[in-house]
Amino acid sequence: MRTVLTIAGADPSGGAGIQADIKTFAAFGVDGLSAITSLTAQNRRAVKSTIPVPPAFLLKQVVVLLEEFRPDAVKIGMLATSANATAAAKVIKLKRLTNIVLDPVMKSSGGYPLIDSKGLSSIKGLLPVTTVVTPNVDEAEELSGVRIRDVKGMEAAAERIFSYGPEYVLVKGGHLKDSPTDVLYDGRRFEHFEGRRLKGRKERFHGTGCVLSAAIAAGLAKGRTVRKAVEDAKEFLEEVLKGRE
Ligand code: PLP
Q1: Whose CA is nearest to atom 16 of ligand 1?
Q2: End-to-end alpha-carbon separation of the chain, Å?
């Protein structure tokens, strides 16, 4: 069975973070390994508190796993500290891990910071080892410095982020007012994935970014192209959200 490693925060409510990733991996028929970057106290409505794991212990978790397993893909989510981001970049380079999906998590939808103040530059430091980075509009603005109002803005941000080194950039348009379109950029052309605007209380959408990036990583582990992995992940996420109505 193919194996995917998630490096992310723990979510006791199960909809985001490590817990959501492991459920997603199981749904795709891949084995899940996990290295926890941070404990959190939260429910589906709000993050209340976090306790980051020290970077040396994050590294230890990954190194011990790699003594036994060789993951076919890695998903990176909440890192909590810039030191954890640096540790993740280090182990990915050292162990030549491939198929890296980076969800550049900066804060919860409620605004709780999920990485420290130096987080932005350390997330940028991960981009050269990243296969697909999956920012939402806010994260894409932070990473690129480009103000995004529409799909054209998403494309401009994707180009800038691409210049920092990832193989693909997927800017997610879910937070845009009238366009739930996602834009995938591979350095040559833009592909648009039209979405349907879904309604519901915010609890329904808790952890959607985590599920999407985990599903993309599972697809890559199974040998799918990035384009196909994104397409399948979006379909999977829609099914998950339907089940939460
Ligand atoms: N908790 C963890 C561990 C996460 O990784 C994330 C998002 O990536 C969240 C909470 C926030 O989830 P949301 O903003 O979707 O509620």
Answers
A1: 206
A2: 32
